């Protein structure tokens, strides 16, 4: 074939790929999209919208606590706001937004054109969206849950919390966890089977390893919560007494809840570790120090994270032997975390890092997370925990861990991958200002809470008496929370302004090493025009010619949606997998599932209707048809 004929053939092939992988335009067609970049971006945007709502609720709480005996909110409203803040941050923001980054980035990092089950991906998003809307509709109707995001019985039982608030909690929490589970299963299958040829397990980027461990943790951690919330729903609606003192045990709920709840901290934290590694590699322009120790540390955190839940229950009257075991395991998890920090420091050591905004967020994460980790070792000690339990010391600790360990790396990841998402750069000047305001505001807000806790101020209270010595600290914290919010708002402004005015990014503006930077920014609907093999852990940095010198995979059809499946360990090509195209049925199945769950709170006839609708939607979903061939 001559050069001109080859170019013509290449252009025609590209146009064919665009037709095959295009998402249909229009409002109603929006509900049919299944491409991983579309669904991943929806998870990210929706997650950050819920984050903004959670921040607003936090500001309302700080407004209430700014002065003693404040009547800005009554106790009932405060309890709903306080509960929804926790539910939002833990269920509607942290896990979904991490999964959103994973859904968008992981297929690109693996060099594939989509995920393994694109319709399942879309179904998970709609479940998540509907669940979030239902929770906030309950808040607007003033029937939101009011027993905290943990909802301990007997407070959460029908006797002490009548009304629909806790019914919403038990039903919607169960419902929304479907979303996290299907996304986790999809990510596991994609990581194991869709790696580009040559990307063996020991060449996978650390972010991919982190998402893989996170996904397995979701699969094992969420079912206990689903079972527990179903049991609590049966307690409330059918008088089953699983968690009542009369014939059940309220402590059982705490075991089941924290068997999910504490691993959830690491479900949020572990993908952030992968983001930190990606950013450090790129901005030092050198391979990571200790790739294998870092990967093993991530896996170790995933295992040990399931052995810590009882340290939330040291004051519940547990046997001494059990308390000692969980004290040891709680302290032990600091070891793999420390290994990673030392590896990152070793990577930075002697390099000439570029102090761009993503790396600034990583450096901020170092300081904040280390403080949170040290206070975590303190509360892992039974004698100290007995004193600090249910005080503001614990509030300070878990915000240092969760915001420092997850939100700062997440913001760094946002600045880092924003050029890939949009094709434009965010403002560095505004980004650095936003970072310093956020960093200062965060520490001014949460560090004084250690002192408040040591002075005995209990958490989960809507007000406090004058004359206890807490007035100045609470006012200072409330003012500082406004500074913290200002920093977050500057990042939001940067995101919005840069959409139109940001500099054009190009394919690889950071000179990064992983495959998502080998395609255009933003990626085309088919992700990659050519599927190239890789022969290195850092494919864009390997050899003298980089990825362009590597062989191209042939034989994948461009006239229908098709991906290459490879072996798990060595990533040898095994098969071609055709994928389904756009479809409305994932959306309708999510709606039918929502009707089934919501009907449980109203009348038993409604779930029966929901089952029928689910059957219809599933039938439409799997109805045999010829796989689409683009014309």
UniProtKB/TrEMBL annotation:
A Pfam family per the record: COX1
One GO BP: oxidative phosphorylation
EC number: 7.1.1.9
Subcellular compartments: Cell membrane
Main location per the UniProt record: membrane
Topological relation to the membrane, as annotated: Multi-pass membrane protein
Domain Cytochrome oxidase subunit I profile: 28-535
GO terms assigned for molecular function: cytochrome-c oxidase activity; heme binding; metal ion binding; oxidoreductase activity
Enzyme class (EC, first level): translocase
SUPFAM superfamilies membership: Cytochrome c oxidase subunit I-like
Entry similarity comment: Belongs to the heme-copper respiratory oxidase family.
Name the record gives this protein: Cytochrome c oxidase subunit 1
Species whose genome carries this gene: Methylobacillus flagellatus (strain ATCC 51484 / DSM 6875 / VKM B-1610 / KT)
């Amino acid at each position: 074939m001559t050069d001109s004929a080859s170019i013509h053939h290449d252009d025609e092939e590209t146009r064919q790929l665009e037709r095959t992988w295009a998402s249909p335009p229009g409002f109603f067609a929006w509900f049919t999209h299944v491409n991983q970049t579309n669904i991943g971006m929806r998870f990210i945007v929706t997650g950050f919208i819920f984050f903004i709502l959670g921040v607003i609720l936090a500001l309302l709480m700080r407004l209430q606590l700014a002065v003693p005996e404040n009547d800005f909110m009554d106790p009932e409203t405060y309890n709903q706001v306080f509960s929804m803040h926790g539910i939002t941050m833990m269920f509607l923001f942290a896990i979904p937004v991490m999964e959103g980054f994973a859904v968008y980035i992981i297929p690109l990092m693996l060099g594939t054109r989509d995920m393994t089950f694109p319709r399942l991906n879309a179904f998970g998003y709609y479940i998540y969206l509907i669940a979030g809307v239902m929770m906030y509709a309950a808040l607007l109707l003033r029937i939101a849950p009011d027993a905290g995001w943990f909802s301990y019985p007997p407070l959460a039982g029908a006797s002490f919390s009548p009304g629909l608030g806790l019914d919403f909690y038990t039903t919607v929490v169960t419902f929304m966890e479907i979303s996290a589970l299907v996304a986790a299963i999809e990510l596991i299958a994609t990581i194991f089977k869709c790696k580009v040829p040559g990307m063996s397990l020991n060449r996978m980027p650390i972010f991919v390893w982190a998402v893989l461990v996170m996904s397995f943790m979701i699969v094992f951690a969420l079912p206990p919560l689903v079972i527990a919330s179903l049991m609590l729903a049966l307690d409330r609606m059918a008088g089953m007494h699983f968690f009542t003192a009369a014939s059940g045990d309220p402590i059982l709920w705490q075991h089941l809840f924290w068997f999910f709840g504490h691993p959830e901290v690491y479900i949020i934290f572990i993908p952030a570790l992968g983001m930190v590694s990606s950013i450090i590699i790129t901005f030092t322009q050198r391979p990571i120090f200790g790739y294998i120790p870092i990967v093993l540390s991530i896996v170790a955190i995933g295992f040990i994270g399931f052995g810590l839940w009882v340290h939330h229950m040291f004051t519940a009257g547990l046997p001494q032997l059990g308390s000692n075991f969980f004290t040891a395991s709680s302290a032990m998890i600091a070891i793999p975390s420390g290994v990673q920090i030392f590896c990152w420091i070793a990577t930075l050591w002697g390099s000439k890092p570029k102090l761009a905004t993503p790396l600034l967020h990583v450096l901020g994460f170092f300081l904040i997370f280390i403080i949170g980790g040290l206070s975590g070792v303190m509360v892992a000690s039974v004698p100290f925990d007995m004193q600090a339990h249910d005080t503001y010391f614990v509030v300070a600790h878990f915000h240092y861990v969760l915001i420092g360990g997850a939100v700062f790396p997440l913001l760094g990841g946002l600045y880092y991958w924003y050029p890939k998402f949009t094709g434009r750069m965010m403002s560095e000047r505004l980004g650095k200002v936003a970072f310093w305001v956020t960093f200062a505001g965060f520490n001014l807000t949460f560090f004084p809470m250690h002192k408040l806790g040591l002075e005995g101020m209990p958490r989960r209270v809507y007000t406090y008496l004058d004359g206890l010595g807490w007035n100045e600290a609470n006012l200072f914290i409330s003012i500082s929370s406004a500074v913290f919010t200002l920093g977050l708002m500057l990042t939001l402004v940067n995101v919005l302004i840069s959409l139109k005015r940001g500099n054009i990014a190009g394919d690889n503006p950071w000179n990064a090493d992983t495959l998502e930077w080998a395609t255009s920014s933003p990626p085309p609907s088919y992700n990659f025009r050519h599927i190239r093999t890789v022969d290195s852990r850092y494919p864009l940095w390997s050899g003298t010619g980089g990825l362009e010198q590597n062989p191209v995979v042939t034989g994948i059809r461009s006239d229908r949606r098709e991906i290459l499946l490879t072996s798990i360990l060595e990533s040898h090509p095994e098969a071609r997998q055709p994928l389904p195209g756009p479809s409305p049925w994932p959306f309708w199945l999510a709606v039918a599932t929502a009707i089934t769950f919501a009907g449980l709170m109203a009348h038993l006839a409604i779930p029966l209707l929901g089952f029928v609708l689910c059957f219809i939607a599933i039938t439409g979903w799997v109805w045999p048809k010829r796989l689409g061939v683009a014309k």
